[in-house]
Amino acid sequence: MADTGTLSGLTDDEARRILAAEGGNSLPESEKRTWRHILADAAREPMFLLIVGAALLYLILGDFSEGLFLSLMVVATLGLTLYQEGKSERALDALRDLSSPRALVIRGGRHVDIDSRELVRGDLVVLTEGDRVPADAILIQGNGLQADESLLTGESVAVRKAPDALPGSARLFSGTLVVQGHGIARVDATGANSEIGRIGASLRDVVRERSPLALETAKLATLFAILGTTMSVLLFAVYGITHGDWLLALLTGIALAMSMLPVEFPVVLTVFPALGAWRLTRQHVLTRRLPAIETLGTISVLCVDKTGTLTENQMTVAALYIPQQHLALESAPAPLPAEFRRLAEFAILASAVRPSDPMELAFHRLGHGALPGTPHLHPEWQPVREYGITPERRAMTHVWQPAEAGAVIAAAKGAPETIATFCRLDASARSTLLAAADAMAHDGLRVLAVASAQTGSDGWPDDPQEFEWDLIGLAGLADPLRADIPAAVSECRAAGIRVMMVTGDYPGTARCIARQAGLIDGEPLTGDQVDAIDNAELLRRLGSTSVCARISPAQKLRIVQALKEGGAVVAMTGDGVNDAPALKAAHVGIAMGKRGTDVAREAADIVLLDDRFTSIVHAIAAGRRIYGNLRKSMTYIVSMHVPIAGMALLPVLAGWPPLLYPMHIVFLELIIDPACSLVFENEAAEPDMMRRPPRAPGAHLFGKRGIAVGMAQGAVALMLVLGCYAWSLANLPEAQARALGFASLVMANLALIFSNRSASQGILKSLRTPNHVAWLIAGAALALLSLALYLPWLAAIFRFQALTLLQFGAAVGVGIVSMMTLALLKPVLRHGFQNKRAA
User: Fold this and answer.
1) Segment 159-178, tens digit of pLDDT
2) Is the pTM here over 0.70, yes or no?
3) For 410-484, where are the alpha helices, taking DSSP H only?
């Protein structure tokens, strides 16, 4: 056990000077996606190329005003793309900063938690089990420290590290994992100068697979692109042959291609997950892998730990037991009765000198409050050996050298059944001890047994069980349930999510806390029972219980695999090194941000920054909201492209003057792009969202039903706009008819935005739901339309003639009728789909 009392480390000023001179502790990153990269990618998009082509065509034809306008629209389109993707990149940068590894260092004699990128050569780093070594360093103090160096060597066997031992045995390498023990190391190489930095860039250039959502959307976008290209070529050929005006045929073909290209799909796939993950951080949930967002809405089983997740993780010693005597500390006088002092003494000796674990902190508080002035506190004793907890040995053992020469003292605390084995109790004594532990556990206490041993100072066994142990007694620690847990569990149940407690705690304690939390009762399934049954029986037993107790990390993995085989979508929490396999195996791995190890956080998909169960519920609700809003956005995109494509195609086929040219499509895209990404991303959750069952794992984001709904909505808008344009051509000059037809198309677009804001509420109710972005986009659209209609030089570019107030009111009427018709159509479509699904 490292003594940090005599170590001061670098001062803050020294660290700043070294950081400025040598740079940060990070590997050279892959080239960051800057605004130049965003613009370069946007410039290669088909929509961008079509706009540029149309602008060049107008300039070649001598239509300089149209060409200049489209050139300005090119700049506006790039600006909008830069804003949207830049906002996503800033959100991702914020997530990267939050997820950056931390390091505990000693600076100026104080323990300081810093971003590992700020580590410098000469820093003193405090390492404990589960930490990633943040930089190359030399171990200067340590106790039983072992490191997994398989990242560098490929050798899976942990390497023992010790200061002042064989050459090289004290050296620690950046990126390796502390699997046992603890110590203090002095950093001697950072960043690119570390061993991992010299190996090469292969460790940082990771190519990730595309998510199912991205693959599904790519297929839909390809389908639209092929359809649009085919129709554009046919329109170009038909119009050119029938009218002989090949230039106009080319412009109308370009307009149709622009109207059919689903350029918004990649926009929403970029913006929604990034901004959704950023919003989750405000609810204390860090998303480490963005595809996890689409999985959150499908979770059907939520496996959570007890301590610190369901409970406060603020423990106090509430009861003590020695054979034949029991003491409830709420009514106990201070100091402790003499017969219980040895129990408190050895509980402290079996804990760390400077503890961070809540149980060990509770024992130290008990000692400082109840044992001062007694010979049971030993600040002068020196720790000489530590035996950590393992899955097979649920006990912590510390060996101490007293101030006076002679025998050394060992203290152990741990699971009552483990300590009973240590003490070699006979059947009767073991039964008595476990019965007392069970009685304390039924009061919701976490129960630990304490034992002592004495041995010579000439060496110690490899296994602490070989000491000659004497049982002292039991300590019961109270860790109250968080006040918000019952409501959160009830919310999960209403959402069709089954909550299971999977804990290493005593079965009686776990069951008591489960009852308080409102989990469905059932006989706890223990780790020993898990080992004794096959997978089929395990799945059956998991179906009838909500509590798994005395579960090891390896058994956690088995539970996850069994639930997955049964068809469940599983989320699993964890915080330890050995929890990593279960976190990786779960559909959504959830690590603890405060008490979790670096390895658990790296294996997880999301990290709870506050370790609270309610944050998981918020994350699930946010995942459902993001997915639901994605569907709304996709429905809107499809529905809006129907009237645009229809009005680009049908008037031409009918022999009418074309309504839409490329500049009209660009104008509409300036409304559609922010609407599909910003309006719907900002939409509030559906009121009944957490009263619906989880989404089926294989459900498509936008299957046949979604396309049908979007097409039906678009067809309604198309018929109304087409009718308005037909009437206009019969009663108004061509330029004024085009202006009225286009204005009605813009109004229908706004109607489609507001109609798709809610999947379950009526339009009037959704209008009362706040979304300032929707009204901002609607206001901007009306302002731009007014400029295009009434600003003479701009109206000339759009080939418009100004509308009278009555005519503009007719266009507004098209939007209102569209919205009313869509409001009537929504429940019909939903009812028809539900009947089809039920059949």
Assistant:
1) 778 776 555 568 888 878 78
2) yes
3) 416-422, 427-441
